[in-house]
Each structure stands twice: as structure tokens, then as C-alpha cells.
Design brief:
globular, 2 helices, single chain, 6-stranded antiparallel β-sheet, alpha+beta
Length: 140
């Protein structure tokens, strides 16, 4: 392999790696949902962007306390639309990162789910966005 070897394929490895541009990194926190729905969202995003999750599957640790799941995604470019994404209920997704990358990740989510913005906060270099995801076509 030469030093000039470049690839346009989806990046591999941990997106929290020091070589990753922080403006392309989006932290995603999912909550108020089942482990199966969290897995659906993370697998859909992982099929389009490099993630720190690998093959890790969300697990429900308690029946009495709500669980949250986190992952970081490298979002350097727009991705192909999502397909085949079915949720049993709604998912609250908190996105945190650079404004352009958060916007790209939101667009990707909107291609496979019904997306409703429920809150946002912006700073100089970062945006926090809360979304409610439901199955596409579901208005409940």
C-alpha cells in the first residue's frame, strides 16, 4: 500500500479518533424508546456513516428506569437516503456537533423517518438539536 492511497468509501474505525475533524463529528443520544428502536436508528445511521458503536446492540438494562444510548458518527458528506427503517414507537434523538454535520445527519434521518424538531440551542461552533423520530407516515 502506498502513502498516496486514498479511498472514497465510507470511513472505517473509530470516528472519535484524533485525526477526525471535530466539525464532522456528531454525538447522538437516543432515549424515550425501546432498545429495538434505538438499534434500528443506530443501524440505519451506521449503514451511512462511520460510528464508534461497531456491532454493539443497545440492550434494555432495566424495566423501571428509562435507558439512553449514545454513539458518535462521522458525517463528512451527505449520505444516500435511508430505506427499510421501521420503528415500533417514537424515539427522542439529541444531536450535538458542528452545524453542517448536524444538518446532514438530520437530513439523513428525515429520509427514513418522520422527523419533528422539539428543541434546539446554538453556539459559535456547535449546535444541539432534539428530534422526535417516528415511522415515516406515522403522525401519532
Amino acid at each position: 500500500m502506498s502513502d498516496n492511497d486514498t479511498s472514497s468509501a465510507k470511513p472505517s474505525g473509530d470516528p472519535t479518533d484524533a485525526e477526525t475533524s471535530s466539525t464532522d463529528l456528531v454525538q447522538v443520544v437516543l432515549g424515550a424508546c425501546s432498545a429495538a428502536d434505538a438499534d434500528t436508528v443506530f443501524r440505519a445511521l451506521g449503514s451511512r456513516f462511520a460510528s464508534d458503536r461497531g456491532e454493539d446492540t443497545p440492550a434494555q438494562l432495566s424495566d423501571t428506569h428509562p435507558d439512553t444510548w449514545t454513539s458518535a458518527f462521522l458525517v463528512p458528506h451527505s449520505a444516500a437516503p435511508l430505506s427499510g427503517t421501521i420503528l415500533a414507537g417514537s424515539v427522542i434523538a439529541d444531536l450535538q456537533g458542528g452545524p453542517v454535520a448536524v444538518g446532514r445527519l438530520r437530513e439523513t434521518l428525515a429520509s427514513g423517518f418522520a422527523v419533528e424538531a422539539t428543541g434546539s440551542a446554538s453556539g459559535d461552533q456547535e449546535v444541539d438539536l432534539q428530534l422526535r423520530l417516528t415511522a415515516a407516515g406515522n403522525t401519532a
